[in-house]
Amino acid sequence: MVLVSVDDHAVEPPHLFEGRLPERYRDVAPRLVRKDDGTDVWQYDGREIPNIGLNAVAGRPPEEYGMEPTSFDEIRDGCFDIHQRVRDMDANGVIGSMCFSSFPNLCGQLFARSKDKDAALAILKAYNDWHVDEWCGTYPGRFIPLALPPIWDPQAMADEVRRMAAKGCHAVSFSENPSKLKQPSFHSDAWDPFWAACSDEGTIVCLHIGSSSQLVITADDAPIDVLISLQPVNIVQAAADLLWSPVLRKFPELKVSLSEGGIGWIPYFYERVDWIYTRHHAWTGQDFGGKLPSEVFKERMVTCFIDDTAGLEQRHRVGLDTICWESDYPHSDSTWPESPEFVMRAFDAVGVPDEEIDAITHRNAMRHFRFDPFAHRPREQCTVGALRAGATDVDISLKSVGKRPQATGATDLVGIATRRS
Amino acid sequence: MVLVSVDDHAVEPPHLFEGRLPERYRDVAPRLVRKDDGTDVWQYDGREIPNIGLNAVAGRPPEEYGMEPTSFDEIRDGCFDIHQRVRDMDANGVIGSMCFSSFPNLCGQLFARSKDKDAALAILKAYNDWHVDEWCGTYPGRFIPLALPPIWDPQAMADEVRRMAAKGCHAVSFSENPSKLKQPSFHSDAWDPFWAACSDEGTIVCLHIGSSSQLVITADDAPIDVLISLQPVNIVQAAADLLWSPVLRKFPELKVSLSEGGIGWIPYFYERVDWIYTRHHAWTGQDFGGKLPSEVFKERMVTCFIDDTAGLEQRHRVGLDTICWESDYPHSDSTWPESPEFVMRAFDAVGVPDEEIDAITHRNAMRHFRFDPFAHRPREQCTVGALRAGATDVDISLKSVGKRPQATGATDLVGIATRRS
């Protein structure tokens, strides 16, 4: 088995911006500061971002999961150190990984809130250069590069997509719902320069759950389990919003990835949108050019899952060609360091043939994200077994770092989300 | 095949309150008024409720679906006339039906907004009496009675649940999210008298999509198709909210129905909540007494679907004992007058054996809702074939009543929802 994960997370190291910015912006670059209470924060544009990694709890016992580790001492080195990251990937049998950003938020919302947009653009470009050249570039063939876009300026987004494509980066993060970020919605033509650039360059647009800076809160006194259960709701909304918008029909080459979205809800979603189309298009005026909405989804949306037996059982309803796999390292949903065992258990439970396993574990990801690890090393050295054989010395035992006061109610989380957004 | 539908809708006839209220409340009772522009509205407590039926479009061509028919002349008599309703049920092969309210909203939100709560309680009781005695009582063995609760007073709710149970009514509507109605959430103990009464009386609590008076709006300029696609999102939220709340654990006999909620999303939901429980309970403190959340769901939640092949394929994952069927007459999602054909096509597509078809089409509904049509007529006279044989003269052809200006954007709908809530 060969594993390529299309959703993991980098925790940015303190030195990220060193030597990457023109002199006039050096003083305004985000900087990591250790506070008197021992927490590490990024300071930027008059703000303090108290989380260094969203729930970066890989390698810790579940009793110590809370919402946020608050210092680099509390997280595994693989979160932020590229050499240790690759070792952790080896120990988990993962050959390839695409990593989302942490402190700038999932699609760079932080930079969009900056007062000085020229500085913000320079900083965002420096971030992207670090991501491609250092994070992904240190170990060629191990990472799928992923750009952040300057979401306050669609033309600048288009320019950055083209600049990054020239550097070999063919994936870009964007918001699952820009209207929640006080930007135009998917139904506006404001984003057309961006969609056009992605379409031209063969760059896949990745919408990650949480990239609207909105949490699904049922009630102020709801326990945190409710909020965690409902995280996928945002991506279902994004899928519906995008599918009925003009975007996919206007840019017929464009592909979109629903990152950390899961797959088990999709067959139900297909039936619903096809029913709505068949039943209502006569008065709503929707037109998919002779196709059903589900067919358009299958052709244009890329999906992924961590551990989703119900979804795998219905993989042919979902569309086998759309399904990729993810590890979500180092978040609390991650199956690290036992990802191969988790995913094989699910494959075995529903009887997935080898050829389909290959499609789901790496071939679909290689095609949709234009990534070819086999160009860098022979396939037989990319397997779970081969990678793990070279990483037997990696310590994967759980490490306690002590327990902190934790947020356990939705209201606490609203506070966290507000600080973050 | 025998069909019992656990989710249909009554459009209230103008005479509803006649002779049912003490004299001092007769002047304040809701009254139906035909306006100069030909629309019919309910006037109550200084408000006008402009819709007589939420999307009551059965029997009209899809080109004429809009959001709201506005007069009784535009809707099928079966919407509001009990004799014609039974004829429409016969023509569709449906022996039993549970009907939600229309103008008072799905769980009586309208009455909760009244200034004079004594009057509101009297009016609500009159409504319930009409529903049980006239709507359901005219044709014994054809309807599952469903009470509205006075949601502004948990003790009065408990009293009404007991009063209605004494009249043979063992189902009550409630809000999928009372906190969105500015009431305490499921996590509060404020509702305990209500839950206790339902538990004692064997009364099932029905949470219908939309009963939080909230629509899922992705963006102001999103087309209406997005909103329609996302209607089930509210019920997914309700399921998570209730499952992690103390309610089901505090009242171990209580059963809850997720009305018009669909079933295809449930296997995915189970995997998610079980994963969250297994992974996070050590720090969130959740405890299901040795069970998994999905097991508690299967024992205590009742589900239903209109047309959901993906869900039927995974019926054993959903829990065969939980699944009921619904027709949703006269709303636009209804499969009337071809419900038997729709549901058999789905059964055939995934190969459901006869015994399981019986459970899904009527046996589960009979057990969960304490309804026994066979006590009123022999089973062989309750089948689709027998009912249709007696209704060959019912005109089921589509009837055009002309096209009105229609709401087609989310903003229009927000307006409608606001007027309604």
Task: Describe the overall structure.
The structure is a homodimer of 421-residue chains. By secondary structure, chain A is α/β, with parallel strands linked by helices. Helix content of chain A is 39%, strand content 12%. Chain A contains 17 helices and eleven strands. Chain A has helices at 23-26, 82-91, 109-112, 117-136, 154-166, 192-201, 224-229, 231-244, 247-250, 266-284, 293-300, 309-313, 315-318, 339-350, 354-368, 384-389, 410-420, and strands spanning 3-9, 31-34, 40-44, 47-49, 94-100, 143-144, 171-174, 204-208, 256-259, 301-305, 323-325. In chain A, α5 (154-166) runs parallel beside α6 (192-201). Chain A starts with a strand and ends with a helix. Mean pLDDT of chain A is 92; it is low at 406-421. Chains A and B meet through α7, α8, α10 and α12 of A and α7, α8, α10 and α12 of B.
In brief, what are we looking at here?
The structure is a homodimer. With about 425 residues, chain A is of the alpha/beta class.
List key phrases describing it.
five-stranded parallel beta sheet, globular, alpha/beta, about 425 residues, homodimer, three-stranded parallel beta sheet
Assembly category? homodimer
**How many helix segments of chain A?**
17
Helix content of chain A: 25-40%
Give me the secondary-structure category of chain A. alpha/beta
Uncertain runs of chain A: 406-421
Radius of gyration of chain A: 21 Å
- Our measurement of the CA-to-CA distance between the termini of chain A, rounded to an integer number of angstroms, reads 39 Å
Order of helices and strands of chain A: EHEEEHEHHEHEHEHHHEHHEHHEHHHH
Mean pLDDT of chain A: 92
Major beta-sheet overview of chain A: 5 strands, parallel
Report the principal-axis shape of chain A: globular
What percent strand of chain A?
A: 5-15%
Instruction: Kindly report the greatest chain-chain contact and the residue count on each side.
Output: A-B, 68 and 68 residues
Main sheet: strand order of chain A: 7-8-9-10-11
Number of beta strands of chain A: 11
